[in-house]
Task: structure prediction
Amino acid sequence: MSDVQYDQFLSRIYDDAPYFGQARSREPELFNGFYFKHLRDKTRRVLEFGSGTGMLTVPLARAGFLVDSVDISSSMQEVLAGKLRAEDSSVAKRVRQFTADALSYLGEEPYDSIVMPEGLVIALPDRALQIALFESCHRNLRKGGRIYADFVQPRYKVVYEQKLQEHTRFRTRDGDEYLLSVTFRNDRHSQVEEWDAVFARKGAPERIAVTVSFRFLFHSELQFMLERCGFKVIEIDVNHAGGLGFAVIAEKV
Ligand SMILES: C[S@@+](CC[C@H](N)C(=O)[O-])C[C@H]1O[C@@H](n2cnc3c(N)ncnc32)[C@H](O)[C@@H]1O
Result:
């Protein structure tokens, strides 16, 4: 069982916050195009692990895909539920939401496709958990079924400096202005990066502190993990989203 890091505050602010969901919410096609290029079958349910606020879930449902959306955070699921309520009922009813741990989730029947957009793989900040995720994908897929995943790579500056602090301002869709300070700490040996983020809303005295951590993966390690878990690697695009990250396709053998 992994920790729930995406609490109510982060879930609510996720799509607007730099370093978190802002880039994807501003340029959804850049990140989602990979999934639309490869997913075909709209008659069988697609399993989505780590659906977050639904930045892939909602576009998939709008395009006619049937999606089982699994996220461990009930507050992320609430944000997605709110977005689905704003959609036409024909779109909303294509999505089934499960607040569950992707590592132990077991669907009613095997899926053809599992999607893991924008980082669930690296949001599990431990090699054993990452392997457990691929093992869960293996259990949930039929033979020949495929994983489609994307995740960012660490910024070289953070790896080089090991510790770095940055400050930025942003405005939410509701019009709130925030100052965001993030301290990044990278450990080259474990490949784990911790982000201590402090949000200060203009005009409000309190500060909200959030810590998230990631474990980044090298191409060779990713390939090794997938093969060890019973997958054949079909493609690892190291230039995904304009060079920001990896996009991976792997098939259950
Ligand atoms: C980096 S966010 C990505 C969110 C989303 N996919 C997107 O496109 O922005 C990682 C998501 O994975 C979820 N998560 C973390 N650990 C999980 C687990 N063990 N099982 C299911 N979801 C998990 C978090 O709650 C969060 O919503």
